[in-house]
Amino acid sequence: MRCRVAIVLPFLALAACGQPSEDAAAPEPDGATAAQPEPSEAAVPAETAAAAAPAPTAFAQCKTCHQVVPGKHGIGPSLAGVYGTKAGEIPGYAFSAAMKASGLTWDDATLDRYLESPMKTVPGTKMVYPGVKDPAKRAEIIAYMKTL
């Protein structure tokens, strides 16, 4: 019997997670309920807005050189707002002549090709990285970049 209780108790505790307490459900003394303010996107600073979408594990290698805060560049340019732009046009970063002249627009297909082999896609790029060979990991990175 003790064995069954030891197994069932953790599950019962988990079942209560996320449930409002009885105190939280009680009405205000005058019968009115407390109004909860709606969070405002405008009130969220840029640093926390970029961090709102969780980065996939595959993005960890990107963070070595790239930031996700608009205008904050590292070794590479900030990736905030890159999706849908022309290559080499993010303000405040000194892109290579090859990147500026590439004529690329950062969409799904172009990012997939570039992330697979940056130096082959844009010969002369500053991004001397061998690339992400796993298509699933590239897809995760691209999906995340769309949220930035």
Can you lay out the helices and strands and say which pair or pack?
Elements lengths: L1 H14 L6 H4 L20 H6 L45 H5 L6 H9 L1 H4 L13 H13 L1
Helix pairs in contact: 5-7
CATH homologous superfamily identity of the domain at 46-147: Cytochrome c-like domain
CATH fold name of the domain at 46-147 = Cytochrome Bc1 Complex, Chain D, domain 2
Largest sheet composition = none
Count of separate DSSP helical elements = 7
The overall pLDDT, averaged over residues, is: 77
Which class of the domain at 46-147 in CATH terms? Mainly Alpha
The CATH architecture of the domain at 46-147 comes to Orthogonal Bundle
Order of helices and strands: HHHHHHH
Indicate the percent of residues in helices.
Answer: 25-40%
Number of strands: 0
Structure description:
The chain is mainly alpha-helical and 148 residues long. The protein has helices spanning 2-15, 22-25, 46-51, 97-101, 108-116, 118-121, 135-147. It has a domain at 46-147: Cytochrome c-like domain (Cytochrome Bc1 Complex, Chain D, domain 2, Orthogonal Bundle), CATH 1.10.760.10. Helix 5 crosses helix 7 (135-147). The model is unreliable at 1-50 (pLDDT under 50).
Note the main attributes of this structure.
mainly alpha; Cytochrome Bc1 Complex, Chain D, domain 2
